[in-house]
Amino acid sequence: MALAALLMAAGPTSAHSELESSNPESGAQLDAPPESITLTFNEPLQGQTATVGVLVGDNDPVQVEGVVDGPTVVIDGASGPLAEVVDGGAEGKWAIGYQVVSADGHPIDGTLTFTVGDAGGEGDAGSASSGGSGESTTASAEGEDGVTWWQLLLILAGSALVVFLVVETDRVMRKKRNPPAGRSDSL
For residues 86 and 131, is the Cβ–Cβ distance under 8 A? Predict the structure, then answer.
């Protein structure tokens, strides 16, 4: 009886948000840089913006703000730091590192890669990964424009810091708005 109750209680808490689709798709081969990047998750996300790390070819990684609308994050490629990178040469491998906060407060992270222009006729540029429980299966393509593991790590670490700050700020603000009921300070 206790085992059944434990299994029933664990069911809903083990379901977390995950990336359902992206535009461009992970592994896509594009002729031109995307005007925007869209990440769609299976349930709404917390917050109004999400910080996303973007690495384009041999350029330095940049952090960009994506607009959160329910389960979708949209990154505008026509303005801000991403537009500057695109203006400087956007051909090669693109790596998008994201970390968002699901509706239940769990951070969800992953990466996706795609290629812009001719990257030497290589096939699949990489695979998407997602998982708030720490599992990550990122495959980086080798070659002149390949993304190294430490570059992806830097992107995700920066995104993780921003998500932590957003979650912590939200927790503190909720605590201020809703002080514990029935608390007596006098003894």
Answer: no
Kindly report, residue by residue over 50-87, the tens digit of the pLDDT.
889 999 888 888 899 899 999 999 999 888 888 888 88
The tokens describing 133, both together, are: 């429980």
- 3-class state of residue 11 by DSSP: helix
- The answer to whether residues 45 and 73 touch, using CB atoms and an 8 Å cutoff, is yes
The pLDDT of residue 71? 95
Residue 156: which residues within 8 A CB-CB, separation 6 or more?
A: 53, 97, 99, 109, 111
Token representation of residue 103: 């509706």
Residue 100, token pair as written in the block: 């968002």
84 sits in the region (left: phi over 0; alpha: psi -120 to 50; else beta) called alpha
